[in-house]
Amino acid sequence: MTEQNRTHAPGAASDNAYRKGCRCAGCRAAHAAAARRRRAGPPAPPADVPAGPGPIELSVMAELGKLPPGAGGFWGPVWRELALYDARLIDRAVATGEHNIVSTMQSRLANVIDRLVAGAPRGPEDTAEWAAWAGDL
Ligand SMILES: [Zn+2]
């Protein structure tokens, strides 16, 4: 196939164009590179990602431990896992400098926390109200 048979604009060679049938030199190179990446497996996490929980995840873990077992209702176990996952993503984003996603993840984490404490007293400092809501704590 010659350069005249390109299926894309000049300079837009890609593995995607290769899969659509283009066999120009750029697309063949892009396809070979994609195949090498697939063979190599998923990339290792960047070295600056903390191995264990970061400060947000640790904080969320501590607060989740104060919630009664039934918090969040039927979906409570899912909200707990999502809260931990969101917290982990925030810590990771901060560690890797991906600050553009932090604000979104903060909103998602706050939404999940709202679901966990829906119907609960506003804070555990109101001991009597909290105990009534939580049962025998
Ligand atoms: Zn091409």
Count of beta strands: 0
How many distinct folded domains? 2
- List cofactors, ions and other ligands: zinc ion
Major sheet characteristics: none
User: Overall 3D geometry?
Assistant: elongated
Structural class: mainly alpha
Question: Can you give the helix content as a percent range?
Answer: 55-70%
Please write the string of helix (H) and strand (E) elements: HHHHHH
Mean pLDDT over the residues: 84
Q: Enumerate the spans where pLDDT stays under 50 for 5 or more consecutive residues.
A: none
Give me the Rg, rounded. 24 Å
Cα-to-Cα separation, first versus last residue: 74 Å
Q: Give the DSSP E fraction (strand runs of 2 or more residues).
A: under 5%
- Tally of contiguous helical segments: 6
Give an account of the 3D structure:
This protein has six helices and no strands. The protein has 137 residues and is mostly helical. Helix content is 55%, strand content 0%. The chain has helices at residues 15-19, 25-40, 55-64, 76-96, 102-117, 127-134. The N and C termini lie far apart (74 Å). It binds zinc ion. Zinc ion binds at residues 6, 8, 13, 17, 22, 24, 26-27.
Task: Lay out the secondary structure.
Blueprint: H1 15-19, H2 25-40, H3 55-64, H4 76-96, H5 102-117, H6 127-134
Helix pairs in contact: 3-4, 4-5
The structure holds zinc ion.
Zinc ion binds at residues 6, 8, 13, 17, 22, 24, 26-27.
